[in-house]
Amino acid sequence: MANSKDLDAALALWRFGLGAQEGSISAIKADARDLLRQEIVEKAVPTPVNAQLASHADLLVALYDYQEAVRAERERPAVMPVAAAAADAAKAMAGAAGADKPAAGSAPNEMAGMNKAGIDKGPATGAQKPAGDMGMQAGAPPAQGTMPGNAPPAQTAQQKPQREKPYLPQEILLAETDARFNGTIHQPLIGFGERLAMFWANHFAVAISKGGDVHILAGCMEREAIRPNLFGRFEDMLVAVETHPAMLVFLDNQQSVGPNSQANRNGKRGLNENLAREIMELHTLGVDGGYSQADVTAFARVITGWTVYRDRKRPGPLGSFTFSDWAHEPGDQTVMGVTYADDGLDQGKAVLRDLARHPATARHLATKLARHFVSDQPPKALIDRMAAAYTKTDGDLSAVYMAMINADEAWTPQLTKVRPPLVYVTGLLRATGLKPKPNQILAVLKALGQPLWNPSGPNGFSDTTDAWASSEGLATRIDAANLFAHQIGGPVDPRAFAGDRFGPLLTDDTLQAISRAETKPQGLSIAFLSPEFQRA
What is the DSSP string of 237-257? Predict the structure, then answer.
């Protein structure tokens, strides 16, 4: 094994960062730990950039307009005058001819053959079609129609023409994907901030399969509520997330009405406890955090009226969070032994503040962070120090990160954790410099079992090895490794590639296996599937 500075550089990149790029281990080996600390001090996290990215309010207003247009299209008369039908068909054809990519509802070609993957690095060679469902477009809804390719025959000119609108939420998801996987993941030297954005987006998980609102807003929530608060107080991130329209819609709080509120005068509406429960169980205290069902119910009453403004007929913050006194449960509420006065919106914020400062929250978050970055079974001493830093600084997340980075237990050379697909694909793209089309990235992540921002429940995706070390998961990783290996152009020596990217982590066994490869893609595939690449 090489000297400690070389090892620190490799671990900084592969355990705490996004993975090594060409020459990056050599670039940081003199002071890897200090550079990692510097990213924390400087609050270093890139900003996703894409022309289609917008604020949550603008995105939701665009979604409402899109939904109205779709409804209007569906309600059009089935029989139309011949001239109108022909004119509409001609317009649709002109739009199709000017498009530079297929509509988001259709099954794309990118994953079907490596030579058509649209990779910036150069044309693929020796293409093979991967197994599994990597040819499907992840997260796309069923097609709403078919764009006509020819003018309607004369005998059917009076029939309603078939047409298809690109599914707006999927278009935005593709833009969010492109901004990260072809943007932010390639920018930092180490990338601890970007890894933290992935961690906290999974901690505060939402699922795009919930519907159009969450589908269009999942990436926006990460941009607006998580990234700006990565290195600040947890309380600030908590309030930003729980009042974001993506979370309110995902956990149905816009449906929650105080039993004694004005909105429930007819007695037919009531509480929805989803948001209150998940805040306590997943986002703050943890499942063993000392709260009761009565606390969940009381907290659910507190946050009635936390909703998203959708009334176009009255002036208001359309598409944004709003507090509705009309739907809010009146009166004081007692949560975990503390009575909170009925101060409207501030009543809920006060509960969030106390939950953020609770000792159980400190330990819950410290454990999750240590499990994500260090070990499935993190040392108790490490968790204790991280929790103590949280409590001492009133929830300053930077202090918690520093406690982890400064602990020798976090720098053990043994690679024990299997990288979740999101981290694995990120490392693969960083190491190779590949910039695939976003459709392909979404398809690969879905095939690997971690579709972007689409977990099966509010608890997000697992951070432990058991969840990702199955034989089925390994087989799909082989497909993904082969796919990307065939997309790398130029005179790349797989042995030199492994030596540069893994540095002192590279074992003799892995190097020998790569050396036996008969082709460049085969050698690179072996590198992508090695323990050094799969584990941290």
Answer: HHHHHHTSHHHHHHTTGGG--
Residue whose entry in the numeric block shows the structure tokens 């600040």: 232
The token pair that represents 280 in the structure block:
């306590």
DSSP string, 195-208: HHHHHHHHHT---G
Torsion of Cα atoms, 71 then 74 then 77 then 82, to 10°: 120
Task: Tell me how far apart the alpha carbons of residues 83 and 90 are, in angstroms, rounded to a whole number.
Answer: 11
Higher pLDDT, 123 or 301: 301
Determine the Cα–Cα distance for residues 279 and 30; give it in Å rounded to an integer.
Answer: 42
Q: Give me the percent of the chain exceeding a pLDDT of 70.
A: 83
* Cβ contacts of 113 within 8 Å, gap of 6 or more: 127, 129
- Give the three-state DSSP class for 49: coil
Phi, psi of 233, deg, nearest 5: -80, 140
Who contacts 136 (Cβ-Cβ below 8 Å, separation ≥6)? 107, 111, 443, 446
Name the residue among 234, 98, 115, 223 with its Cα closest to residue 166. Answer: 98
d(CA 395, CA 99): 49
Full 3-state SS string of 511-532: HHHHHCCCCHHHHHHHHHCCHH
8 Å CB contact between 221 and 206: yes
Beta bridge partners of 79: 159
Task: For 467-518, write each residue's pLDDT tens digit.
Answer: 999 999 999 999 999 999 999 999 999 999 999 999 999 999 999 999 999 9
Task: Give the C-alpha distances (Å, rounded to integers) separating 346 from 229, 267, 343.
Answer: 20, 26, 5
pLDDT at 300: 98
Non-local (6+) Cβ contacts of 42 within 8 A are none
Taking residues 188-209, report their average pLDDT. 98
Mind listing the pLDDT tens digit for each residue in 214-230?
999 999 999 999 999 99
Q: Which residues, at least 6 apart from 273, have a Cβ–Cβ distance to it below 8 Å?
A: 256, 296, 297, 300
Q: What is the pLDDT at residue 129?
A: 34
- The reported pTM is 0.86
Q: What is the mean pLDDT of residues 277-287?
A: 98
- Residue 85: band (very low, low, confident or very high) from pLDDT cuts 50, 70, 90: very low
Pairing of strands 306-308, 321-323: antiparallel
* CA angle centred on 122, ends 172 and 439, rounded to 5°: 20
Confidence of residue 95 (pLDDT cuts 50, 70, 90): very low
**Are the C-beta atoms of residues 66 and 165 closer than 8 Å to each other?**
yes
Cα→Cα distances 122→115, 182, 481, 487, 491, Å: 9, 15, 17, 7, 12
Q: Which residues face 269 on adjacent strands?
A: none
Give the C-alpha separation, 222 to 200, whole Å: 8
| Nearest Cα to Cα of residue 396 among 406, 386, 405 | 386
Q: Name the residue type at position 249.
A: V
Residue-wise pLDDT for 153-174, tens only, equals 444 444 444 456 799 999 999 9
Structure tokens at 212: 């159009």
